């Protein structure tokens, strides 16, 4: 069953409301040609975090439910839809893949769940589900993910001598999020709000607040000067050492609670859509 009719897509224009409408049309066009059921789609990446440059893409992320015929079929079907069409960068996981990642407290999918830029949502009792999910996550997973992400970004920048504002801010955002996870505090998505969760005189926060507006006015490939690179690398390395010294223990009890919660809701969703 096709959930949408085909809509011809125009080039994105400068009006934010028109951009949202065009994104919705792009999503509709994807599923017009498929039997899968679209469930939930949001804006991810730099636009969600308040870090977009003039040439930033639209990173649309979310999940779908496989068609009923695929669900009952004995064959394995691809659990991922990926489409790149100009500024439209679309990734959709099927329900089982999405919930499998949420069961591991995967920070990327948890950011999707918490996103405030929402394009489509067909999930019943969404607010109740989301609140219950966030009450059961494992903060150690957030800590180690964000720390590892930041360390990897820094290593890549140093190895390739490629310090773009975009990559530096992704690294900073990761370290601040890892620090908050050590306090069992959910990192805010919008970066200026994230800054507010960090101590006011933190050196990395002060650097980032000063350079954020500069970053927004430059394209994605703009490079820091050598002086800026030296300053920020020192700040990043100091923060990494401090976070590496923190021991975050995993909780089996928390994991079991989360897995049970997602299993129950998965059954509920499949009954709702498949009947």
Could you walk me through the main structural features you see in this protein, from its secondary elements to its overall organization?
The chain is α+β, with helices and mostly antiparallel strands. It has helices at 16-32, 45-49, 68-72, 95-103, 107-114, 126-134, 139-160, 165-182, 191-196, 203-216, 226-244, 252-274; strands at 37-44, 58-65, 80-85, 88-94, 118-121. The chain has a 5-stranded mixed beta sheet, sandwiched between helices. The longest helix is centred in the last third of the chain and has 23 residues, at 252-274. The radius of gyration is 20 Å and the shape is globular.
Q: How many helix segments? A: 12
Strand elements, count = 5
Largest sheet: 5 strands, mixed
Shape descriptor: globular
Oligomer: single chain
* Structure class: alpha+beta
- Provide the succession of SSEs: HEHEHEEHHEHHHHHHH
Mean pLDDT: 90
Compute the separation of the termini in Å.
15 Å
Task: Write a brief structural summary.
With 275 residues, the protein is α+β, with helices and mostly antiparallel strands.
Task: Write out key terms for the chains shown.
275 residues, alpha+beta, 12 helices, 5 strands, 56% helix, 12% strand, disordered N terminus
How are the secondary structure elements laid out?
Blueprint: H1 16-32, E1 37-44, H2 45-49, E2 58-65, H3 68-72, E3 80-85, E4 88-94, H4 95-103, H5 107-114, E5 118-121, H6 126-134, H7 139-160, H8 165-182, H9 191-196, H10 203-216, H11 226-244, H12 252-274
Parallel strand pairs: 2-4
Antiparallel strand pairs: 1-2, 1-5, 3-4
